[in-house]
Amino acid sequence: MKKTLNIIVFLILIPFLAGCGNTMKNNNNTNEAFNLQTKVYDVINDNAFEGFGNLIFPVDRNIPKDMTLENAGDLYIWYNNINPNKTVEIVNYMKDQTTKGNKIFYNIYSKEEMEADPEKKNTGLFFFRGNENSKFAVLNAGGGFMYVGAMHDSFPHTLELSKKGYNAFALIYRPDPEKAMEDLSNAISFIFDNADELKIDTSGYSVWGGSAGGRMAAWLGSYGTDYFINKDYPKPSTVIMQYTSLSEVTGNEPATYSVVGTNDGIADYRIMQERTNRIRRNGTDAKIEIFEGLSHGFGLGEGTNAQGWIENAVKFWEEHM
After folding, report:
1. For residue 282, what are the contacts with CB-CB under 8 A and spacing of at least 6?
2. The pTM is what?
3. In the chain, which ranges are continuous DSSP H helix?
């Protein structure tokens, strides 16, 4: 019988229109680079991203037909410090990889599973390659379990990790706590079962997440995959959490690194500080960086006093591989 995670999820009542069923004719040449004035739908419908282009941007948000990459940050409510130039860098990286023949997207469910449950079609892993046979990380964007903000909250991180030689996967999940944990657990299953094809080292991996995605990372670290899908795979060596005020500590947490701002109206830095202290008292290494004045959802923190936090997080992970 499927186990149920007993959780309380924060709800933020900001109205918006969900869904992006609009389609547009694609006139893009697959060799043409994207820029700030490129329309979001021209990226989604680009031939290079056939079969998964709709998952690059949130499927649960209404995307205006004339929205450009420069203004795509408007899709990501609750987030701050969004860098449109990073968005352009990411989609160009993705296109360059596919042009070179590198597969960048993997389904985590079979065709039969997706046909039986169409919601599962809106899931999968974007793969940002590092060095062959290097360790891997899985990153979970936030979005309040209402949408998946990968372009700001996981794609930039996966790109930076790949530049450092690590293999990084950004998970697109169903924005519901229990379904999201099923998706994350199946993603771990997929990675381990296909490690030879992916050319990765599965030992000492890490799981990252921001906001709602931070809860996902923490839950996986505390409970393991078997709690959610009845398949037992090794737990991560390290959990990296951004701005999520989860207070629960089970005593089974792996090494945990957290970051948050003092001006975060969604994730209270004091709750994150106390959780870090409790993990330490249980004998597990845990650290937290608290950034004065920063609000929720600062991502990589480029141009802020949080810039460079990811370097510290990677060093922490390396200490616990």
Report:
1. 249, 251, 253
2. 0.90
3. 40-44, 84-99, 111-116, 150-153, 155-163, 177-193, 195-198, 212-223, 226-229, 269-281, 309-319
Give dist(CA 160, CA 149) in Å, integer.
17
Tokens in use for 142? Answer: 């936030």
Please provide residue 223's backbone torsions phi and psi, each rounded to the nearest 5 degrees: -110, -30
Spatial separation of the C-alpha atoms in residues 289 and 313, rounded to whole Å: 10
pLDDT, one tens digit per residue, over 13-37 is 333 333 333 333 333 444 569 999 9
Nearest CA to 136 among 113, 111, 106, 109?
A: 106
Answer whether residue 153 shows pLDDT above 70.
Answer: yes
- Tallying the residues shown for the chain, one arrives at 321
Average pLDDT value over all residues in the chain? 91
Q: What is the pLDDT of residue 29?
A: 42
Q: What would the two tokens of residue 280 be?
A: 């330490």
Q: Which helix (H) or strand (E) holds 260?
A: strand 255-261
CB within 8 A of 305, min separation 6: which ones? 291, 292, 293, 294
The Cβ-side half-sphere exposure at 185, using a 13 Å CA radius, reads 21
User: Cα(143)–Cα(75) distance, rounded to whole angstroms?
Assistant: 10
Tokens coding 50:
């056939």
Q: Which two tokens stand for residue 129?
A: 């390659």
- Position 254: which residue type? P
pLDDT bracket for residue 154 (50, 70, 90): very high
For range 86-102, the mean pLDDT: 97
Mean pLDDT of 302-307: 95
Contacts of 84 (CB under 8 A, 6+ apart): 36, 69, 70, 71, 72, 73
Beta-bridge partner residues of 286: 256
Q: Of the ranges 17-31, 53-67, 81-95, 280-294, which one carries the lowest mean pLDDT score? A: 17-31
Pairing of strands 167-172, 134-140: parallel
